Amino acid sequence: MKLNDIATKLHKKSKRVGRGIGSGKGKTAGRGVKGQKARSGVAIKSYEGGQMPLFRRLPKRGFNSIKNRENNFVINLRDISNFIEKKKIDLSNKLDLSSLIRSKDKKNAKYLKIKVLGTGEISQKVNIVAHKVSESAKTKIEKSGGTVEILK
Length: 152
Hints:
alpha/beta, CATH 3.100.10.10, 2 domains, three-stranded parallel β-sheet, two-stranded parallel sheet
């Protein structure tokens, strides 16, 4: 390969529009026929030429309070079984929010509730205390001989 060929591949020239019918972008220069978008100086989306845009003129409605937001610590059965294998979780005690957060190495965790999901398998007998548990997780835990205690 010649050096000239490499240079042309690296620096591809831009298409020159409106330079004759043979160029493939002649006559209307790829803008279609007539209409606002065919003209020059078009900004349809949001710019209104210095006028206050519509989305800023309209009042904002509603409020999402941070206080009412649910802050769930979501954990899968796959994660719990991994922690048991790595001996990060002690099975003699019930698994609650604080022990699971410690095992997952979350620093300054601001979680209020725990939710257990059923992704993965668990073979050990585990006693879990949680606020929410999915149906699949509950059946898998009870199948392995463990218990699920749901907090209110």
